[in-house]
Every structure is written in C-alpha cells, then in structure tokens.
Amino acid sequence: MTYLSHISINPLRAESRDLLGCPRAMRGAVLGGISDPSQMKRVLWRLDADDPQRPRLFVLSPSRPDWTRLVEAAGWPGAAGGQAATREYRPLLTQLAISREFAFRVTANPVRDDPGESQAPDDDRAHRTPAQQLGWFLEHAPTWGFTIPRTRTGSATSGLDGRSPRSAPDVRITARSRHSFTEGGGGVPVTLHTATFEGRLLVTDVVLLTQAILKGVGPSKAYGCGLLTLTPPNSEDSYSGGALN
C-alpha cells in the first residue's frame, strides 16, 4: 500500500528553520516518520513554499507513516488544520487513463545525461538556466508516460525558442533554488540546482506514468526532488495537493 501525506510546517519554530533551510535535515525528519528501515529508500517528498507563512510538506511512502514527532517539533500541534493528513494513494492511480489530462507539480534537479559525465558531481552536470531546465523536462516527459499539451491562454513557456505564446507547451517554472550542504561522515559536498515545474500533462502511457509517480522522476530524490503530484485541471487548488479526484 502507498500513502500520500501532507504536513503544514510552522516556519517560526526553531527546528522548522533548520529543516526549511537544508534538504539533508528535512530528509532526516521525513525518514523519522517511517517505521520500516527497508522502505526508506522508496520515500519521496517535496516542500511547497507557495505560502511562506505556512509551507507544506508532501510525502509519498510505501507504508503508513507516523508524523507525531514532526508535527510536534516543526508543525502546528493543536491548531486548526495542524495535524498531518495521510491517505491511501494507490486506489487513486486507477483513474489514470491514456489521453486524460491532469494539472501537475514536481520539483526536480535537472542534470545532463551524458554517459561520459556519469561520475561527475550533479553540480558539474546541472542545467542552470530556465530554458535549459525546461528543455530537460520536455525531453524526459515521454519517458515518464506523458506529454505536455499546448497552452490555451498564452502563458507558460511563451517566448522560449521564438515560439508564439499559443504554440508553447503548457508548463512553467514557478520556483528555482540552489542548495549546498555536506553529506556523510566525510562531509561530502552536495549542490543541487532545483526547479519546480507546474502545468498540464496528457497521459500517453499509464504504466510509465504510474512508475514515475511511485518511484519519482530525475535524480536527487532523497533531497526533495522527483515527487510528481497530479490534480484535475479545473480544481481550485490545481497544482499543490497531489490528489486525484
């Protein structure tokens, strides 16, 4: 069974500030809610900070988690809407169907896939400009079981590649970040150049898309990248929740 959880973070608390500023620290807090160590590598998470006063943490886990410790230390214990919300996710995946459209959100770490650079640090292979990052996303989308339809309103990637707004793919980058920290006992440096993509997708392969949702997309999944969430395109909260209705 797979579960999707949503936890609201209180940014004014001391522990929250540490978690919000470092993907390594947030990963530790997320894994603290998973009881089975053998399943920790299969956990995906994403931090959405649309509202800086109430950032939201989404976690996809292969077993039912316990967020009591995280909520008490970094959330809103006792406040309205402060408790973590967790629900089974796999039954919702049955609604995926070829040619169906969904709104989506994913934070990814776009890097070059050149085999000759496979041993190079992600920072050396990173796509750093919005155009490069969007190009990476559009190139990989078919391997994840979907394509990006053309925009209906003239927004999204308008202006890229000299295309008219109405012919542009309906995807946009809504946030870009650079994170640097150390990992492991030897203090190995890690640098991520992340981008959050939002837009509409068209399902082309249910099996591939299901795998992308459950296993994540792109590298650096341990550090908050790769969790792809979908909602109906006309939902009031189209990009944030990760619900399939």
Your description of this structure?
By secondary structure, the chain is α+β, with helices and mostly antiparallel strands. The chain has two domains: about 5-90, Alpha-Beta Plaits, CATH 3.30.70.1200; about 100-230, Crispr-associated protein, domain 2 (Alpha-Beta Plaits, 2-Layer Sandwich). About 20% of the residues lie in helices and about 25% in strands. It contains seven helices and nine strands. The strands form two sheets. Strands 5, 6, 7, 8 and 9 form a five-stranded antiparallel β-sheet that branches. A four-stranded antiparallel β-sheet has the order 2-3-1-4. α1 crosses α2. The longest helix is centred in the middle third of the chain and has 11 residues, at about 130-140. The relative contact order is 0.19. Mean pLDDT is about 85; it is low at about 160.
In short:
The chain is an alpha+beta fold. 22% of the residues lie in helices and 26% in strands.
For the biggest sheet, the summary is:
5 strands, antiparallel
Shape: globular
Q: Would you list the SSEs in sequence order as H and E? A: EHHEEHEHEHHEEEHE
Number of domains: 2
Structural class: alpha+beta
What share of the residues does DSSP label as strand, in percent?
25-35%
Total beta strands: 9
Termini, distance in Å?
18 Å
